[in-house]
Design brief:
It is a single chain. The chain is mainly alpha-helical. The chain is 64% helix and 6% strand. The chain is built from ten helices and three strands. Strands 1-2-3 form a three-stranded mixed β-sheet. Helix 3 links the parallel strand 2 and strand 3. The longest helix has 31 residues. The chain is elongated. The chain starts with 15 loop residues before the first helix and ends with a helix.
């Protein structure tokens, strides 16, 4: 029934340990556990209990899936019963366990994602505009008289903004804890490592934009050309798995998508490096790619 509903992507049957691992990594949204003798009890009108363990780090997506499950239980399963044996009560007793966010508090989902959105906007914009402004004013020409390498110039422009990024992170984390009581159950060291990689990836995008744009207006437009798809297709505003397939493919290429999964996993689930790695290596790959492109473009700019 779940496979034929055209709403769920059923990954298959796994044991309890594998189901927990998939939920922790965010590979699945929820796990449905059917008791032994489910079909027999259903036909006999005993309303068998079905356990749904949901990843409630995204309450909006979880609420939609649970609503569809309730509808399936009330209509589909009941319709399969013989008319004489159909019970007046619900065909199944659906028990929902919202893991990692039992109360379904939206702040637990929005605040960590908002950190990624703020870092994406500020890091790219500040870097792109700062470097482009120097080109407009002619101060970048001074670099032509020095034996400096393009990579060294890029690192010199990036490193100060890394500190600014961590100041923003500190303010957001303090506000998340004091104002919204967002839990922080994961290792802080791995969290800051992920944030560092994400900040560097966004700064490399800003450097690349500055090497292409000829003025600050173009840099601003290119910044929003990257920022808006990141915000819309990363799963921050809409449930990621509820988007069309083409939108999910684009979203997988954006660093904000993987950072949101990483930050929610650490803060709400307490993920370790094993669960972090599937979301960390795409950020590292994006960083290396953008640095390579930025160095090539910046070399041509200096030449």
């Amino acid at each position: 029934t779940l496979r034929n509903s055209d709403y769920f992507d059923v990954r298959g049957s796994v044991d309890a340990r594998e189901a927990d691992r998939l939920l922790e990594r965010g590979d699945v949204l929820f796990v449905v556990s059917f008791p032994p003798g489910f079909h027999r009890d259903l036909v006999r009108g005993r309303s068998p209990t079905v356990l749904v363990e949901a990843d409630a780090t995204d309450p909006m997506a979880t609420a939609g899936a649970i609503s569809v499950l309730n509808k399936l239980g009330a209509e589909v399963f009941a319709a399969d019963l013989p008319g004489l044996e159909r019970p007046p009560a619900a065909a199944i007793d659906l028990r929902v366990q919202r893991r990692y966010n039992p109360e379904g508090i939206t702040a637990y989902n929005i605040v960590p994602g908002l950190m990624g959105v703020i870092l994406t906007m500020t890091m790219i914009m500040m870097t792109a505009l700062a470097v482009t402004r120097e080109v407009e004013r002619g101060t970048m020409e001074n670099l032509l008289a020095t034996p400096v390498r393009p990579l060294e110039v890029m690192l010199g422009k990036i490193l100060p903004y890394v500190l600014i990024g961590f100041v923003q992170v500190a303010v957001i984390l303090i506000a998340a804890r004091l104002l919204f009581d967002v839990p922080f159950v994961g290792p802080a060291g791995w969290l800051f490592l992920g944030i560092l990689v994400f900040i560097a990836a966004n700064l490399s995008v800003g450097i690349t934009i500055s090497s292409v744009a000829r003025n600050q207006t173009q840099a601003m437009q290119m910044t929003f050309f990257f920022f808006l798809p990141s915000m819309l297709l990363s799963g921050f505003m809409f449930p990621f798995r509820g988007m069309p397939g083409w939108a999910q493919h684009i979203g997988e290429l954006l660093p904000l998508t993987h950072f949101i999964r990483l930050i929610r996993g650490i803060m709400l689930k307490g993920n370790s490096v094993i669960e972090m790695w599937p979301h960390l290596w795409p950020l590292l790959l994006f960083l290396c790619t953008m640095l390579f492109v930025g160095v090539l473009r910046f070399r041509k700019t200096l030449d």
